[in-house]
Amino acid sequence: MVLRGLRKRRGPLEVLRGIDLDIPAGQTVALIGPSGSGKSTLLRLLMTLERPDAGSIEIGGVPMWTDPRTGRPAGAAHLHRVRGRIGMVFQHFNLFPHMTALRNVAEAPRHVLGLPRAEAEARAREYLAQVGLADKADAHPAGLSGGQRQRVAIARALAMRPDVMLFDEVTSALDPELVGGVLEILQELSASRAMTMLIVTHQMKFAERSADRTLFLDQGSIIEDAPSAELFRAPRTERARQFLQAVI
Ligand code: ADP
Ligand code: MG
């Protein structure tokens, strides 16, 4: 994943002020920083939910907003292809309440990828098992704990077999006793190196232990970018030092 000169303005405020970043395939990167620093905005740009004002994004060598075949601005078909390579899980899981866990996970493989029902459901079972919920396939979201619901949301994103997974504070809305189970899943996914992962988190111990690399974003700029062990042991900027002291 290659980002060059990414900028995003919201009204008078420049929320991202020129982000340059190279993330090799399979790397797990933690994104930390104060509230309002632009973390969610960056993920929304990477998810194609919003368009940058300037700069470029490439995923697996494929430009996001330009159709490489024509060199012209990307049309709907190109964006659809790019989006298919990226999965995202949000803080507030938005499962379909009227569907079982199985159907929640099978829905996109069936209707977006066009897999036959049996195949989509087999795939859904595979990913529910991966997040430790093989026995909850027939449960509705209302019958699951917050942590289980968030794991279904992760399985749902994984079932599209993306190259890149984006996680935006996926444990922030959970009761403390449910956080560990979700972080464990992220840790396993990261260790498998099957995908590139970008994780916005306030769980600093998790970032330190599980992410190859940590970025510290402040006021729309990446002001630290280092192997996690290094960044947490010896942050270079006063701003990051203060932030880490306040949150740990
Ligand atoms: P973070 O995720 O790091 O807390 P965000 O990316 O959500 O930061 O927000 C960055 C800045 O953009 C903040 O100043 C926030 O108030 C502003 N912002 C976020 N979303 C919107 C929006 N939809 N409209 C206007 N301003 C927004
Ligand atoms: Mg945010």
Automatic annotation (TrEMBL):
Q: How does it sit in the membrane?
A: Peripheral membrane protein
Keywords on record: Amino-acid transport, ATP-binding, Cell membrane, Membrane, Nucleotide-binding, Transport
Instruction: Give its localization.
Output: Cell membrane
Lineage: superkingdom: Bacteria
Q: Which residues form the ABC transporter domain?
A: 1-244
Q: Name one Pfam family in it.
A: ABC_tran
Q: Does the keyword Hydrolase apply?
A: no
UniProt-listed SUPFAM superfamilies: P-loop containing nucleoside triphosphate hydrolases
Acetylation among the record's keywords?
no
The UniProt GO MF terms for this protein read: ATP binding
Give the family from UniProt.
Belongs to the ABC transporter superfamily.
Q: Extract the PANTHER family matched here.
A: AMINO ACID IMPORT ATP-BINDING PROTEIN, GLUTAMATE_ASPARTATE IMPORT ATP-BINDING PROTEIN GLTL
The protein here is known as Amino acid ABC transporter ATP-binding protein
- Read off the lineage from the record: Bacteria, Pseudomonadati, Pseudomonadota, Betaproteobacteria, Burkholderiales
